[in-house]
Every structure is written in structure tokens, then in C-alpha cells.
Design goal:
heterodimer; A: alpha/beta; five-stranded parallel β-sheet; globular; B: about 625 residues; alpha+beta; four-stranded antiparallel β-sheet; 23 helices; about 20% strand; disordered C terminus
Chain lengths: ~140, ~625
């Protein structure tokens, strides 16, 4: 398990009620967690924090998109659009853990897991240990 | 008529360049309706003298191939197909004839301006009409003269006697192929109009697929996929109907305006005006897409005044097919609009190379009826497509809805075991556990509902009404939502009006489930740092209990006030605001209240201003239960 003390985590999930215990666990283990709930808020935050970006982004897929992101499927792929904008438009290589209920391989295949070494997927429900392992892997790559 | 040899060559060239596609079309036609006939073939002009077939002989003419090649009788076969092709083109008609071996064959010329550019062959059948000895005797005499009686008998027994046909059937097929030949001519003519070849080829392929697939469609569940592929070829289908002897009149829905016609030639604008006046005087503006099929002059049975008018003014009409199509893309008008099509068969309309339709059960009628059925099903098809898409979305949503609270439960347990629960939250543990249990219970109920049919399951469940203090009930509901609402920064307030009412008779568990669903939605779609108000009022008219939940958040659009209580419905605004939700919470609330004899409805969704660049609306949802307030108790 990796020590999360002083690790800055940007946690993105619109279901903050259900994710509360996961965020609690991260904070209890020393991480500094910032919680956001829609895709546009993520982009704006990262633009503002470009000089000191978070160490890890934990990103949900299905969430509201906000004004800067357009999806064809009512927000079901907002996380994918955020990922693309971070990598392609903003050219940020921030490590990303995709935290999602989605098991649809079709949707996940749009993410560049094979080529992007700083990208990993973890499916809900998961324990703190699972999340810690995913963070450790994506930080090592 | 052609004036020069160059014209003839040009037509032949066009015909040859389309021959593969035309063959494919014929294959489709053959596979759909003539599969038991073993198919057919098309022989282009110019090949007659070379004894060359476009199809492999064994596929097109198995009998001919068998006799010529396998029995080695090529020298005594007089190639009747070649002779008859010339005969058919000479008289400009489809013909059926005896081959030299006593089989019945059909030759159909394909004519361009009176010139034969090819011939469709089909047949190789043994007539089975009782008393019709000509063919059979011809065959036997031929076999006997050439000493091949045994072989011919064996051949007939094995390969052809299993599919005897009647003379009547031969005539039907002949008419069918003649109409197909005319259609092919029209296709080639359109080439001369310089239509893009690519578009024409694409239409051919679609039409071919149409015929190939038509025979596979057996139930409405598959029809939507089938029909959606063929919307673009409606003009071609209409042309085909026209070639079969149908007159197609297309009028604009609700306006009785003649938009186009296929096969009905108007000599003047005045004729069109007269027809439009007749249609207008029918006094009908909304066509319901009903299908009318009549035989003979059974006018009284018609419920559509337009069809009655058509019959009254066209005494020779013997059949009307009425279909509604949502999409007709006419060549001269590319706009998509709802049109009303009348297709009627008039036996006296004189058109070049026309034929008369008589029987109800001819192959032609079945084909046309199948097409018209598809027209009528189009709307059902679109509805079915929508339902299937919604079901797919729902299944994905269910996975989402279950995994989130499961994850939360797992995480809480994990935190408790590993003792990494924040101190300030430890006192909230009972609240969280109660929330999760309730949420799991609601989800289970939702999914159970989704798997049931349309019947309200609460109608069959036993109600356990008892007297309860409504104020305490509402406060308990609000407390049970506390964990969830506070996480969203929302406070739930119970108004004092509830205290004034006193006791009410209801099934506590059911009403709690109904109200909690309303509150869940209210919290989910409320803006942060706002308040939700729950109130209870007594309607003295019928001693109804009226519960209302008022919140500030996203709009409930006026046209959705009813449908948001339907199963699986979530507005676009709701989806945009939150991905969570199955569209079942409000549905279940309504079902419960309905089973209790009450109503669930939206009272208002009023714009109150802009909050953080979002439009804020005051939303109020009410649950009404008549005759539940207990008189004489506290508060009265």
C-alpha cells in the first residue's frame, strides 16, 4: 500500500453522498482531497491549478457535463470527454484513476488504457485497499 | 419508336451496364415469391443466337441443363427458349409456352420504346391440371420417340413432379413478371434522365434487400429493424406498385391537397382541382392511418369518407388500400412530411402494357398488402425502437444505481474495520446505515416494479391502514433523509400545519415509501444550500389529506408534469443535472397513492430567478389522499 500523506487528490464524482466514505478514508490516510461534481468544473479547476496540479485525478465517467463539454448521450460519457480534453487539449499528463460503475467494455474501450501509462480503471464497488493499489500503480508508471 | 440504330445501341448499352443490378433485383424478387419455382434468369438481347445465358445453365434451367448436358441430348433439343424470347418481343407481351419436352415455361420481354433488350425466363414446370394432357402427352411422346422414357420418368419423378403447378398459377406468375419487366424498363428510362448512377445502384440494392427480407419478417418485433432500412426507397416501391396496376394518389394530411400521383394522369389542372374539391368535401382533416381494404362495392362498410368519395366517383375501382406514411421523399419534393396515401386499383385505367387484377389472393395482392402493412406499422415501429432504446438505458441505469450504494456500504464497513472513520462522523454511523438500508429497500422495490407488467402491484398488496399522527410521520420521514440531504447541503423543514391536523388513517409503510421517493427526487434536483418544505393540509371538502413537497432547483417542464410519474421517464434537464436515477421513484409513488385511492401530481414549477448562472424554479409536488383525516381528534 502506498502512503497517501501529502498526496493531492482531485476526486470527481457527482454522487458525493455515496462516495463520502471513500473520501473519508483518503483523508484519514493523509491525502488532501478536492471534490468536484461535473466535467466543466474539473476543466476549470485544472486550468486554474496548472502550476500546481493535483498528484492524482480520480475520475467518474457518468456525471453532468456542464457548459464546456458536449456529449451525445446525456452525460453518460462526460468522464471520457474530460479525459480527452485533459490529454489532447490541455496536454496534461496527470495520473488518472477511472472510478466508475461502468462495466461496458464498449464505453471503456474509448479510453486509451493500453497506450496511456498514467491511466487505470477501477470498478465500483471497491475497498480502500483496491483504490490505494490503483493509485500506487498509476503513480509508478 | 427508335429512329436510329444508334438509339438502339445506346439502350442496349445502358441495359447491359445495369444488367448485374437488375439481375440482383430479380434474384430478390425470385427469392421472395418464386423460390419454389427455382428462380429464373434474364437473357439480354443479342445473346439469343449464341445460346449464351447470363446465369449458369444449371441454376436457371435445371431441366434444360439436365437434358442437354447430363442426358447428352443437346442435338435434339430445339432451344425453345430462344424461339420464344423472339416471339415474346415480337408481340410485345409476356407469354407462356410448352417447351419441346412438355414443360411449361414463361418468357417476358423487357422493352425499351418497343425494342427488346432482354428477356426474363422462368418456369420449367409440369402442369398438374386435371384433364390437361397436352403437356404430359407431349413429354411422353418425345421421350418415347427418342428412347429415353425411363430416364425422363425418373427425372420427372425425382425433380419436378413434386412441384406441379396449375395453369392459373402460371398466369399469375406471368403477370407478376410482366410488371417486374415494366419496372425494369422504368429503371433504365430513368438512366436516360441522367440520374446519378450511384444513387440508382444504391436504390436497386435496397429494393433487392427489401424483397429478400420481406419473406423473413414474421412478427412485429423484428419489423422495426427491417423497415428502418427501407424508408429511403418509398418512391421506388410506389413505382413498383404502379407497375403492378395500382394508381397511387398522395394527398397532404389534413389539407386534401393532391401532392403527387403515380399512374393517374391528369389532363388538366382543372381535373386536379375537381379531385381536391371532392376530397375537401369529404370533411375530414385528420387521418388516423387506418387501413381500409375493400372488395367490390361495399361502400357502407367504409368509415373513411375519402375512400367513399373515391369509390363514388370512380365506379371501376375494385380495391382501395389506404396507408399513412410519415416519410415520403418524392423526387420533386424533398421535404419530409406526413402524407396520406391512397392506393387504388382501377381495372379500366388504360395504360400501356397494363393488366387487370382480379383475385384477392394473387401474389401481386399479397406483395402490395405486405408493403401497405409496413406503411401502417411505421409508427409502431418507431415507438418500438424508442422503447428498446429506453430499455437499454434503463438496464445501464440499474447497474449504476445498485453499484453506488453497494460501494458506499462496502466503504463504510471497510472504514469501520480499518478504524479510519473520521471522529466527527462516527455519531452519524446509525444514520448512514439506516439510509443505506432504506435506499436498498427502495431500489429493490423499483427493480421489482420494473420487472412486472403494467398492473399496479400495490393494488394486489394488502394495505394495513391505521391511525397515525401525521406530524410525527412527516418528521420521521425528514429525519430519515437527513444524512442524504445534509450531504447535498439541503435542509428539510416540516411545516406546522401538520401539527394542526392530528390523526390520519393510512398504511404507514406504503405512504412512507411514496413520500421518501418524492423527497429523494426533491433533494437530488434541488440546488445546494436551499430548503425543502414538507407540509400537510386538510382539504375539508372531502376530508382529504394533502401532502406537499416544495423545493428550489431545476425546472419541471410543463409538458412533462404528467409523464414524470410514468415508468422510466427522466427529463433531459434531470439527466443533465444528475446521472443517478432510474425514473421509477415518482412512478412508484404514484402507484402507491393510486392504490390508496388518491392522486400524485405536480402543482407548480415557477421560475424564481437565476442562481449561480442557473435558472432556479420553485417546484411543488402533491400527494392527495381523500377521506383520511379523522374528525374529532386533535386539531379539530
Amino acid at each position: 500500500m502506498i502512503n497517501l500523506k501529502e498526496i493531492k487528490i482531485l476526486f470527481v464524482d457527482d454522487d458525493k453522498y455515496w462516495m463520502r466514505p471513500t473520501i473519508d478514508a483518503l483523508e484519514v490516510h493523509g491525502a488532501t482531497v478536492t471534490l468536484l461534481t461535473d466535467g466543466t468544473a474539473v476543466l476549470r479547476y485544472l486550468r486554474k491549478m496548472v502550476q500546481s496540479p493535483p498528484d492524482v485525478l480520480i475520475l467518474d465517467i457518468m456525471m453532468p457535463s456542464g457548459s464546456e463539454i458536449t456529449t451525445d448521450d446525456e452525460g453518460r460519457s462526460t468522464g471520457l470527454e474530460v479525459y480527452k480534453k485533459i490529454r489532447q487539449d490541455m496536454k496534461m499528463n496527470i495520473p488518472i484513476v477511472i472510478s466508475t460503475v461502468v462495466s461496458d467494455s464498449t464505453m471503456l474501450s474509448d479510453f486509451n488504457f493500453s497506450k496511456d501509462k498514467k491511466l487505470i480503471n477501477i470498478q465500483k464497488p471497491y475497498t480502500y485497499r483496491d483504490l490505494n493499489s490503483a493509485i500506487a500503480k498509476v503513480l509508478e508508471k | 419508336m427508335l429512329s436510329t440504330n444508334d438509339d438502339y445501341k445506346k439502350y442496349l448499352e445502358i441495359f447491359h451496364s445495369n444488367i448485374i443490378e437488375i439481375q440482383d433485383l430479380l434474384k430478390g424478387v425470385f427469392s421472395y415469391k418464386l423460390s419454389e419455382w427455382g428462380g429464373g434468369a434474364i437473357l439480354p438481347a443479342g445473346a439469343h443466337d449464341k445460346d449464351r445465358f447470363m446465369e449458369e445453365p444449371k441454376h436457371f434451367a435445371p431441366f434444360c441443363f439436365y437434358v442437354r448436358e447430363q442426358l447428352g441430348m443437346k442435338n435434339i433439343c430445339y432451344a425453345c427458349d430462344d424461339r420464344m424470347a423472339k416471339e415474346a418481343s415480337k408481340i410485345g407481351k409476356a407469354i407462356d409456352y410448352w417447351c419441346d419436352w412438355g414443360m411449361r415455361d414463361i418468357a417476358v420481354p423487357i422493352l425499351l420504346h418497343g425494342v427488346n433488350v432482354g428477356t426474363i425466363f422462368c418456369g420449367q414446370k409440369i402442369l398438374a391440371d386435371p384433364g390437361d394432357l397436352e403437356g404430359q402427352s407431349k413429354l411422353l411422346n418425345f421421350a418415347e420417340r427418342n428412347g429415353v422414357e425411363d430416364k425422363i420418368s425418373d427425372l420427372i419423378e425425382k425433380r419436378f413432379q413434386s412441384i406441379p403447378v396449375s395453369y392459373e398459377e402460371i398466369q399469375k406468375i406471368k403477370r407478376f413478371l410482366w410488371a417486374t419487366s415494366q419496372y425494369i424498363s422504368q429503371l433504365v428510362y430513368s438512366q436516360l434522365d441522367n440520374e446519378p448512377l450511384e444513387q440508382r445502384l444504391d436504390d436497386h440494392k435496397k429494393l433487392n434487400r427489401f424483397f429478400n427480407t420481406l419473406s423473413e419478417v414474421s412478427n412485429s418485433s423484428s419489423i422495426w429493424q427491417f423497415w428502418s432500412d427501407f424508408e429511403g426507397i418509398l418512391p421506388q416501391l410506389l413505382s413498383l406498385l404502379n407497375a403492378f396496376g395500382a394508381v397511387i394518389l398522395i394527398i397532404e394530411s389534413g389539407k386534401a391537397k393532391v401532392v403527387a400521383s403515380h399512374g393517374l394522369e391528369f389532363n388538366s389542372k382543372e381535373e386536379i382541382n375537381i379531385l381536391e374539391e371532392q376530397l375537401i368535401s369529404a370533411e375530414i382533416n385528420n387521418f388516423d392511418g387506418a387501413k381500409h381494404i375493400i372488395f367490390g362495392k361495399d361502400i357502407e362498410s367504409l368509415c373513411c369518407p375519402i375512400c367513399r368519395r373515391v369509390i363514388q366517383n370512380h365506379p371501376t375501382v375494385n380495391m382501395i388500400l389506404f396507408a399513412k406514411s410519415n416519410l415520403i421523399n418524392l423526387k420533386e419534393d424533398k421535404k419530409d412530411r406526413t402524407l396520406h396515401s391512397i392506393v387504388f386499383f382501377d381495372s379500366t385505367i388504360e395504360r400501356k402494357n397494363s393488366f387487370i387484377l382480379h383475385e384477392k389472393k394473387s401474389i401481386l395482392f399479397q406483395t402490395v398488402l405486405a408493403i401497405v402493412n409496413l406503411f401502417a406499422h411505421l409508427e409502431q415501429v418507431n415507438n418500438l425502437k424508442y422503447i428498446i432504446r429506453q430499455r437499454e438505458k434503463f438496464l445501464k441505469d440499474v447497474a449504476h444505481q445498485f453499484r453506488q450504494p453497494l460501494h458506499s456500504m462496502l466503504a463504510y464497513c471497510d472504514n469501520l474495520i480499518s478504524q479510519c472513520f473520521p471522529e466527527e462522523r462516527k455519531t452519524r454511523i446509525p444514520v448512514y446505515l439506516r439510509d443505506m438500508a432504506k435506499h436498498a429497500s427502495i431500489l429493490t422495490k423499483c427493480v421489482e416494479y420494473a420487472s412486472r407488467g403494467e398492473t399496479n402491484i400495490f393494488l394486489s398488496e394488502k394495505m394495513n391502514p391505521a391511525n397515525h399522527n401525521i406530524n410525527k410521520f412527516l418528521i420521521d420521514c425528514a429525519i430519515s433523509m437527513q444524512g442524504y440531504s445534509e450531504e447535498q447541503g439541503i435542509h428539510i423543514h416540516v411545516e406546522d400545519t401538520a401539527a394542526a391536523i392530528g390523526e390520519v388513517e393510512f398504511d404507514q409503510n406504503k405512504l412512507e415509501l411514496a413520500l421518501i421517493n418524492i423527497l429523494f427526487n426533491a433533494v437530488k434536483y434541488s440546488f445546494p444550500e436551499t430548503e425543502i418544505t414538507v407540509s400537510a393540509n386538510h382539504d375539508k371538502k372531502d376530508d382529504s389529506l394533502v401532502l406537499t413537497v416544495t423545493s428550489l432547483g431545476i425546472e419541471i417542464p410543463r409538458d412533462k408534469w404528467r409523464v414524470i410519474f410514468d415508468r422510466g421517464v427522466r427529463t433531459a434537464l434531470a439527466r443533465d443535472y444528475s446521472q443517478s436515477g432510474l425514473g421509477l421513484g415518482l412512478f412508484i409513488s404514484r402507484e402507491i397513492i393510486t392504490a390508496m385511492g388518491g392522486k400524485a401530481y405536480v402543482v407548480e414549477s415557477t421560475f424564481t430567478g437565476n442562481q449561480n448562472n442557473c435558472k432556479e424554479y420553485k417546484n411543488k409536488i402533491a400527494l392527495t389522499l381523500p377521506g383520511r383525516v379523522i374528525l374529532g381528534k386533535k386539531g379539530r
